[in-house]
Amino acid sequence: MPRFVSAVSTGKTAGLKNVVENQLLKTSRDDTPPPINDVLRVIFVTLNRLASKPPEPGGTKDEPCAPTASPPPLERANEVCELRRTIRLLLGRDSDAGRAAGLDAIAVVEPQLQGILDYITGTGTSRDRVPHYEIASAFSSLCSNSMVCQLSNGLDLIIEFTAYANTPDGRRLVQTLNTLGTRQTLTAFLAPQNLSEDGFVAIARALIPAIKGADPVALENAFNQLTILPADLRADLRPLIDDLKRLLQNERLRRSISQALTCIETSDRNYDIVRMLYRLAIRDVRPEFGITRLSQIFKQLQDVDQRGSLIFLANTLAKAVRDDEDAIAAAASTCKTLLATSPNNAQQALPVVADLVRNGLVPESLCAIDTLLFGCAGGPQPACR
């Protein structure tokens, strides 16, 4: 990772270094490890625990993972073996289709991350060059582990939603979203000449409380009161509303959604996150935030990942972290501290992260992963492109 090493060696990461050394690697008690230590601990303890499981069906003592061409069913797979297979898939090491879908999907993440970081810091590709650290403050509040916001609520939401995605109703919802992303009625409506920022926020203000209340009737009423929506778009949105009403009948998922939205409303009372999404996706017409582009990438990943490994791994890893209360507290503290605007941690750290991403941190990281896991044995490295 030559660009990253160069940034470190020339002092360009000083702001981030200062936050890590003086905030994340210090603790008020000698017998208590710094939060970032506990985050690293849970990562390696979890991976070690999963890797220490018996060989999966088709594997042996010396080769615990089954051959890539004949993996066992997901419910019998070793999680680390499945993680390795998924990385192979996303890095396109098994097929041209995998390379197109996996790396293209990852390639969308980089400009999305860059856009958000530039918007917060007011640098780089930011249109108005005005910092918006209120976004960092909102995300810091989401990590506060307060009476209203608990990181465990977010983990519960991931666990319940990934489980729901494998049910008939969940698969129907995913298909509905894929179809909706291709509708011209939606893409035309999501244009700055047709939808203002205040209108976008008004839609969020109407739907979020209805969904948070977990009341299908309230959701239907809120949808009917959105007179801003054209008739043809309302017709195309009808299947999604019906799917959401079915989703709200799932008690465990309903509770997780309600807790997560309550936290978001409390942490972001001015809907600054919603306003950021409007400005990036609609006002600035950034293609990487476009609904059609995102839908296409999501559909490509589904076509390649027909085993459902990504959903399986998200569920498994969220459960592993959820079972470790110390890890939850440490991760929440690390997130809250890194994004805090008082003291000005976010103002020191985020410009460094934005500059690293702008100078190729994401593709360099992918190439490093490809090299470490597969490239040292020789052969092509599709991620190093």
Write out key terms for the chains shown:
single chain; about 375 residues; mainly alpha
Number of helices: 19
The major pleated sheet works out as: none
N/C terminus separation: 13 Å
Helix and strand run: HHHHHHHHHHHHHHHHHHH
What's the helical proportion of residues? 55-70%
Mean pLDDT: 86
Give the number of DSSP strands: 0
Shape call: globular
Written overview of the protein:
67% of the residues lie in helices and 0% in strands. With 385 residues, the protein is mostly helical. It has 19 helices and no strands. The mean pLDDT is 86.
In brief, what are we looking at here?
This protein has 385 residues and is mainly alpha-helical.
Helix-strand layout with pairing:
Elements: H1 2-9, H2 14-24, H3 35-51, H4 79-90, H5 96-121, H6 133-142, H7 151-165, H8 168-180, H9 184-189, H10 197-212, H11 216-224, H12 231-247, H13 251-267, H14 272-283, H15 291-304, H16 309-322, H17 325-339, H18 345-358, H19 361-373
Helix pairs in contact: 2-18, 3-17, 4-16, 5-15, 5-18, 6-17, 7-13, 7-16, 8-12, 8-15, 10-11, 10-13, 10-14, 11-12
